[in-house]
Amino acid sequence: MNAILPPWIILDPLLQQWLCEDIGRGDRTTASLLLQNRPSGSAYWVVKESGMVAGLTIAARVFELLDHEVEFTAIVSEGQWCEVGQTIAQLKGPLAALLTGERVALNLAMRLSGIATLTNRYTVALSDFPTQLVDTRKTTPGLRLLEKYATQVGGAINHRFGLDDAVMIKDNHIAAAGGIQEAIAQIRGKIPYPLTIEVETETLEQVQTALENQADIIMLDNMPLSIMLEAVEKIRSYNNRIKIEASGNITLETIRAVAETGVDYISTSAPITRSTWLDLSMKLGEGNWGIDYPLIRSV
Fold first, then answer.
1. For residues 159 and 137, is the Cβ–Cβ distance under 8 A?
2. Which residues 6+ apart lie within 8 Å of 187 measured at CB?
3. Is 262 helix (H, G, I), strand (E, B) or coil?
């Protein structure tokens, strides 16, 4: 797992926004219970269903933003597969911060762990192929940075993060320009170096046009396997340096057959759009630490 987390200067405003959304004018329950003193305590996180854990570093940051005295210790590695009942993190510090930050931290970790878990199942299915799994821009608004981080944890590589990362000429762009040749001609002279040009194709005729107009990457979209195989052979014989991406209704049941055609990349939104949250829970106390800290102590 070589996932790279965006820097805190980028993530902190998002985390603060989500904390503000949840806290509103104040945590009424926690503030009412802990108004007279500032007790500290301990808690632990436990996995309630098997899966790959992701987002613990982000969860730790949530609590740190609330109170720098919170100690969040990950017991498992980011991207580690965990079983039901396994303890994955220990927390110590001001109880108010533990209770107030619980939901935002858990929500993010559960969402990201769910994505990492399903992504891992896709990458395992490709483990004996050179083909790489790629995510898409079908992400939850506001969560793209973290959801794409989670696909990396699961073993995928990121496609472009936004429209400014690369040129991708899709079917509607082709229709708007009047054809693939026209679209590439209009775009090539206007984009900065070193942006690449990728063209979405649905037929062998479109593949040929993309080749003749020097596309850097050719996407084979929703092609029957027999046609996809022909397209790969055509591209390889024309220019072996052109990268080939397959996309469109990729499932765990079909992904190996697509990889067998020889494409370089398979892109799918499924790990993000079809994943369910991995169930995690926070409990006050020590869990399976073997160290006896008091549940609450006043300071």
1. yes
2. 167, 169, 197
3. coil
The overall longest dimension of the chain from CA atoms, in Å, is: 76
Q: Is the pTM of this model over 0.85?
A: yes
Question: What's the pLDDT tens digit per position in 14-57?
Answer: 999 999 999 999 999 998 887 667 799 999 999 999 999 999 99
Give backbone dihedrals phi and psi of 59, rounded to 5 degrees, phi first: -60, -40
Tokens representing residue 215 in the block: 């596309």
3-state DSSP call for residue 34? coil
Catalytic residues: 103, 138, 170, 200, 221
Instruction: Name the DSSP letter for residue 185.
Output: H
CB atoms closer than 10 angstroms to residue 205: 10
Alpha-carbon distance of 54 to 121, in angstroms, equals 15
Pairing of strands 40-47, 71-74: unpaired
